[in-house]
Amino acid sequence: MLWSVVVIFLVVVVVQNLDVFTHKEALRLNLVIKKYKTEPFQLSFYFLGFFLIGLLLSYFHGLKERFKAKSEIKNHLETIRKLEEEIKVLKSLPVQKENTPYKETETA
Question: Which residues does 26 contact at the CB level (< 8 Å), separation at least 6?
Fold first, then answer.
């Protein structure tokens, strides 16, 4: 539901500002030694390019966290497996009564 609202909002923004997104601009880079200039692009390509760069950066940043979580889950599953085996062994042992010393009641 939330994503539908976000997509509809973005479509409305793009449609109402179509002239802004179709406006053409060139990128310029001045590195004291050499100057670079691209052919004019539509601003929509800039927005799309920067969106994709941000998407890739967030994906690779989250990738590290996912690998950590995956290894932690494996460790926890191994611990669970070992504990379940220990429980199984303990359940199979016969129950032994403990010899408790008999308490004598004091009579005076």
Answer: 37, 38, 39, 40, 41
- State whether the Cα torsion 14-16-19-25 is positive or negative: negative
Q: Which helix (H) or strand (E) is 74 found in, with range?
A: helix 43-92
Is pTM beyond 0.70? Reply is no
The pLDDT tens digits of the residues spanning 29-52 come to: 888 889 999 889 888 888 889 999
What stretches of the chain adopt beta strand conformation (E)?
A: 24-25, 28-31, 34-37, 41-42
Distance between CA 7 and CA 3 in Å, rounded? 6
Map residue 108 onto helix, strand or coil.
coil
Domain boundaries along the sequence of the chain:
2-90
